[in-house]
Target: Methylthioribulose-1-phosphate dehydratase
Amino acid sequence: MSVVARKWQELAEIKDELAGRDWFPGTSGNLSIKVNDDPLQFLVSASGKDKRKRTMEDFLLVDGEGRAVEDTGLKASAETCIHLEVYRNTTAGCCLHVHTVDNNVVSELYAEQGFVTFRNQELIKAFGIWEEDGEITVPIVENFADLPTLAKEVARVIETNTKAVLIRNHGVTVWGKDGFEAKKHLEALEFLFSYHLKMLMLQPRWTASPATAAHA
Ligand SMILES: CSCCC(=O)C(=O)COP(=O)(O)O
Ligand SMILES: [Zn+2]
Model:
């Protein structure tokens, strides 16, 4: 099996799993997996597809400028430019983007602050953070309609330990060194978002950490 075929299979399986969680409402979301480092080539989901369905036209191979490597009638995800910035600015091998109610609400709650920090949660270990007082911070950017501007904004907030960026009232973009790690990070983050919102609904004055106290 060629590398492209193997990576296609890996990404298709991740897509099916995320679809099983209903994380692609209304054709939203996109996924990519790196096939080659130098020159950069990655498989990315085709734009506007129902990501719950599996077809032979789900992905296309693009280069380091986001252009299709082979002749195809398929259009790469409109947000390919964001995936490109992730690959340019991190060591990611896979990048996942989903719109959920939880990630949208968290992004809106903490948009003015520009980040949200999670502490005192076992699942922080999913990010390789094993310290007793470990924490994970997710930057939040405005949802610019101009996608190249949005992509540059995502690139601007990526630091060494950044694993994900929230886009305000849009969704979350998460990555990992490979498909397994990217999915682990995404599942862990969505757990943290959900827990956070449930705690806020049950105890409105609850805060996860001093850093998130601003809105309480
Ligand atoms: C219908 S959702 C609006 C576009 C979007 O945010 C998204 O994630 C899906 O875009 P794509 O071009 O990858 O289908
Ligand atoms: Zn999106």
User: Anything to note?
Assistant: Helices lie at 3-20, 80-89, 101-109, 147-157, 179-202. Confidence is low (pLDDT under 50) at residues 211-216. The pocket of L4RZE5RM (ligand 1) is lined by residues 26-30, 45, 47-48, 77-79, 97 (CB under 6 Å).
